[in-house]
Amino acid sequence: MTDLAKFAAQGDTLTLPDGARVFAPGDESSAFFIVTKGAVRVEQTNSAGRTVVLYRVAAGESCVLTTACLLSGRTYAGYGYAEGDVTAQALSPAVFRRLMQTDPAFQQGVFESFALRVGELTGVIDDLLEHRTDMRLARWLAAAPTETIEMTQSDIAQELGTAREVVSRTLHTFESKGWVTLTRGKIIVDKQDHLRAYGAPTV
Fold this sequence. Notes:
The chain is 42% helix and 26% strand. By secondary structure, it is an alpha+beta fold. α4 runs antiparallel to α7.
């Protein structure tokens, strides 16, 4: 996959503190961002206030919503928030258009990133439509990089696009099975293999 980071020098450096809002619905895209440090969480919120995380933009990556806005001239349809202290290179719309027209490597990198994100979004939609929340939560817990997860149940609900009450009820069910241990502000994964097996999609 083409590394977009090599084009970062053609943009201006942008720094954002943890939690800063990068964009919101209705905003116009003012630049093509290439993240060099930290990550940007992209999420969608419906009219009832339910939020689901769509994807994260890590170092060396670009945002598919930003690309879509620059290519179509439309405004953002979701939210972007800095996770950790974020540094990014902001390529102006004029530079973005010039590179798209004159640099095949840049064009390929943009469309590769776009295609990758669309695939991820399809996976998110499939999970929301086809799989039970308890199975999705089991898979999410089993895939955690560490055995101890320091997140609130509200944050986990946001990750999965469901209600906090559903997450709380499911976690207590998992705890009764001995798969997790719940403490204040933490979830300890005790039986990763059991969670993985429970969350495996059925055919």
